Amino acid sequence: MKFNSWLECERGCGSRYSIYDIIYQCKECGGLLDVHHDLDALRKKSSKEWKNIFESRRATNQWPYGSGVWGKKEWVSPQIDDESVASFFEGWTNCFWAKRLGQEIELHDLWLKLSGNSHTGSFKDLGMTVLVSVVQQMIADGKKIKAIACASTGDTSAALSAYAAYAGIRAVILLPKNKVSNAQLIQPISNGAQVFSLNTDFDGCMKIVQELSKDPEIYLANSMNSLRMEGQKTVGIEIVQQFDWQVPDWIVLPAGNLGNVSALGKGLSMMKELGLIDKLPRIVCAQAEMANPFYLSYKNNFKSKQTMKAQNTLASAIQIGDPVSYERAVKVMKTFDGIVEQVSEEELKDASARADQTGLYTCPQTAVALGVLFRLRENNTIQRSDRVVVISTAHGLKFSKFKNDYHSESKDIFHRYANTPIEIEPDIELIKNSINSMT
Ligand SMILES: *Cc1c(COP(=O)(O)O)cnc(C)c1O
């Protein structure tokens, strides 16, 4: 059976392009482009057949189906040759029952999907495997591409560098000088990317990368590129599959540029259209107060897009004031009866530490999602018998400084869940007393 996908203008002007065209916006009207699939061809298999196919590829090592993304290849990027796929077998991250955290907030059926437990430590791997694979196919088909480029201070550059290195394609990373941490720099450096440290801010880097990618031999990997969404959309499909094809009541996730929520909605909608599920979950987007344009737009019923200059937030991966995928995300919120809620810096810090004390190790973005969950439990928007899945977007180990700062003693700021090491003489009685004094 022949399956197909193509790029189509998101504004509905009808323009279509090949996924191998080097184009990021509609030539006719300037709209963003979305990947569309030949649903009629996909419908020739029944929903039961698709479920069986996806199940049969779970935990296989057969190339490339062992990946959570490529195990759904026909729905993601069907026309790519298997040899062109660049994959670390991303996806299939654990979705586990957060029993104790759930008990604390009277929510028995609480689950965490650890999509940050991935090769480069964030869900960005899910999208980057598709983008780099498409480029590898273009090169195999004779297109000349020198490099794949992005401006990013964190997870996108880490993911691009790793997948490009896997494929043997040069990655070009533009970073604002002195504005990124060592942890953010070291992944692309280790993977051999060409890393430029520029005397400007993030927006300055973004402008330059857009200029650079006017050269058709430099392919742009920033989130305007909709190929990444095809990989990211598998997260929702995977969650449903992990519940034996049952749809949870709620999915909560942190949101910045709004690509991930758009992708989540896209995957779930595709499942419904192809008959694998017959209802949709409600979606909650979580934002930090310091960078809350989507929350403000939600509050005015999406009458107009709100933008802002994002202020500093510990949730640096969602510190975005003018989200690229706004229009897509609004559609998703309308279809999924969505909610946008926000938390303060204090709330996100405490939410993270509180969750960690039940065994988690949350990144600050996931902490925003958890803080929002706590709020929605307190006001009973989310009810105690609901099944809730929180998507964790990065691995907490990428954010050691955030943890350190919270737990270090500070005279100025009181941290509710801070846990500091006890400095004490190596005296057995003193230590015993200290252990016994803990209730
Ligand atoms: C990119 C990223 C986000 C935000 O995703 P968007 O698609 O920009 O909304 C959230 N958390 C982490 C860890 C990320 O890397």
Could you estimate the helical fraction of the residues in percent? 25-40%
Q: Give the overall shape, derived from the CA principal axes.
A: globular
The helix/strand order is EEEHHHEHEHEHEHEHEHHEHEHHEHHEHH
User: Looking across the biggest beta sheet, what order are the strands in?
Assistant: 4-5-13-10-11-12
Which regions are unreliable across 5 or more consecutive residues at pLDDT < 50? none
Give the CATH class of one domain.
Alpha Beta
**Structural class by helix and strand composition:** alpha/beta
Gyration radius, rounded: 22 Å
The major sheet is characterized as: 6 strands, mixed
Strand content: 5-15%
User: Would you give the CATH topology of one domain?
Assistant: Rossmann fold
Number of helices: 17
CATH architecture of one domain: 3-Layer(aba) Sandwich
Quote the distance from N terminus to C terminus: 65 Å
Average pLDDT level: 95
The counted number of beta strands is 13
Bound molecules: pyridoxal-5'-phosphate
Task: Describe, in plain words, how this protein is organized in 3D.
With 439 residues, this protein is α/β, with parallel strands linked by helices. It has a domain at 95-119 and 229-407: Rossmann fold (3-Layer(aba) Sandwich). Helix content is 38%, strand content 15%. The chain has helices at residues 39-42, 47-56, 73-76, 99-104, 124-140, 155-167, 182-190, 202-212, 227-232, 234-242, 259-273, 293-299, 326-335, 345-356, 364-378, 400-407, 428-437, and strands at 5-9, 16-17, 33-37, 95-97, 109-114, 147-151, 170-176, 194-198, 218-220, 250-254, 282-288, 339-343, 387-392. The strands form 3 sheets. Strands 4-5-13-10-11-12 form a 6-stranded mixed sheet, sandwiched between helices. The longest helix is centred in the first third of the chain and has 17 residues, at 124-140. The model has no long low-confidence stretch (mean pLDDT 95). It binds pyridoxal-5'-phosphate. Pyridoxal-5'-phosphate (PLP) binds next to α11.
